[in-house]
Amino acid sequence: MDVFDVAIIGAGVVGACVARLLSSFNISTALLERRADVSFGVTKANSGIIHAGFHHDPASLKARLEVRGNAMFDRLQADLGFPFQRVGVLVAAFSYEEMQTVDALHARGIANGVPRLEIVNRDRILALEPKLHPDVVGGLWAPTGGVIEPYRFVFALVENAIANGVRLFTDWNLVAARRADDRWLLSSEDNQTLAARRVVNAAGLYADEVSAFLGGEELRITPRKGEEYLLDKNAPGFPAHVIFPVPSKNSKGVLVIPTVEGTMMVGPTAVEIDEKDDESTSPENMERVFAQAARMVPSVSRRDLITSFAGLRPALPGEDFLIARSRKAPGLIQAAGIQSPGLTAAPAIAELVADLLKEDGLALAPNPAFQPGIPRTPHVAMLDRPALEALVRQDPAYANIVCRCESVSEAEVVAAIRKGHITLDGIKFYTRAGMGRCQGGFCTYRLLAILARETGLPIEAITKRGKGSYIVAGRIGETPDPERNGGKSNG
Asked: What's the DSSP call for residue 285?
């Protein structure tokens, strides 16, 4: 049986940050993910905002870790090369009553230690963001805010962690745990077992179930659904900065977000639901989101919509993060209730988890072989003509454009597959193939063909996001397999 010093349950952004940090120490670490690839849970549908740190109370763990995490992204980006830009955040106020809330946000941000925070008047905010509605009266300017591709961040973190010795197990769904000989024996749904001296619960929506398996605290995770709407790269409403409304008591509100790759998003909603797998969107919420977004940026239009999606945030009662040694289960570190600003805070959460592991008696001697960086895969869309021509001379597959909308080459798709991303969504998140205006209408078959060639899988065995999400139901003339999703596509 494999025995590890630490097993991390959950390979979203928190688990990935913890894995990468622990790989810098001379210990053995396992990263366990219930889905087919890392970042496929809560993280994949994140808004991709690196928050500045003015929304949360200075006494909260959220506020402390958010500001610390924000400051860590420049170094991480230099090491790992994921897409990240500090475009800045604006909070737009449309009445003098809302400006009173802006004053409170400014005071909170100053108390939290947010640098370069500024209250701005109408002329200043319109100079910063001319696409705002002319009725704006002022707002808050936070230049340290930014945007990121959350899944590519996680992919880079995990790739680096693996290169430094972490073992990744995907399709590994915890169903039982027991304590024996000062170790946790963890069992998966498909009867795999491994042992770990300590466990980090970073299981997102399922952190309550993981805690129960290990005899830890009784947690109550409530899924909070957020619907997002993605607009084309040519959308006239594309802003230069992330635009927030003045928040209400229970929500940051509907945002207008320039993504790091040049599309834009509006959303999210915030509705508590019961089901942990309900990722549906609705016409009613779309109407509401676009109406609220257009109040801030009038040129936002549904005509530019190319797709919609929903993400589920794992909310705990009381709203703050729970990051602590379990008081009930030995060797268990809880990292639960990590909703917004969890993406921003994740690098700092990893530092706190490492400190808690040390408090629990784990020796964290430096790993002398640790390398902080990863090899970079060239992206055709980012290259000028001379650089592309030089690259094509080395590998002609860079001249074969598989995805026209995002200018993704065959070579980039092959690189993704060889790094272990063997679903359509894994390739999409790694390369952006299928993320453009046609949403895979041109490239899906080409991606399937490359996947089949590189993996040896028949096309009908390839999935969109893992078990049950087949793209092709079968071949014409064959009888569909009733065990395989009723013979129907679930892509």
From this structure: H
The confidence score (pLDDT) of residue 491 equals 37
DSSP 176: E
Structural contact between residues 148 and 83, judged by C-beta atoms closer than 8 angstroms: yes
The 3-state DSSP class for residue 342 equals helix
Given this model, what pLDDT does residue 474 score? 79
Cα–Cα distance for residue pair 223/138, rounded to 1 Å: 34
Share of the chain above pLDDT 90, in %: 94
Residue 55 designated active-site: no
Contacts of residue 372, Cβ cutoff 8 Å, sequence gap at least 6: 24, 79, 80, 160
pLDDT tens-digit readout, 186-227: 999 999 999 999 999 999 999 999 999 999 999 999 999 999
Residue in the block written with tokens 């475009």: 87
Residue 482's pLDDT band (cuts 50, 70, 90)? low
Asked if residues 204 and 10 have their Cβ atoms less than 8 Å apart, the reply is: yes
- Determine the residue type at 275: E
| Beta strands, E only, 1-142 | 3-9, 29-32, 49-50, 84-85, 89-93, 118-121, 138-142
Q: Name the active-site residue from 51, 55, 56, 106.
A: 51
Residue 484 has pLDDT above 80, yes or no: no
Coil, strand, or helix at residue 111?
Answer: helix
* pTM check: above 0.85: yes
Which helix or strand (DSSP H or E) is residue 186 part of? strand 183-188
Average pLDDT over residues 108-115: 98
pLDDT, mean of residues 99-118: 98
Backbone angles phi, psi at 59, to 5 degrees: -80, -10
User: How far is 101 from 96, CA to CA, in rounded Å?
Assistant: 9
89 vs 67: CA distance, rounded Å = 14
pLDDT over threshold 50, residue 363: yes
Q: Whole-angstrom Cα distance, residue 130 to residue 123?
A: 10
If 0-12 CB within 10 Å is exposed, 13-18 middle and 19+ buried, where does residue 397 land? middle
How many CB atoms lie under 10 A from the CB of residue 244?
26
Task: Enter the tokens of residue 231.
Answer: 């607009």
Would you call 445 helix, strand, or coil by DSSP? Answer: helix
DSSP-H helix ranges across 271-319: 283-296
Here the tokens at position 143 are 């230049």
Q: Give the CA count within 13 Å in the CB-facing half-sphere of 3.
A: 5
Q: Identify the DSSP state of 218.
A: -
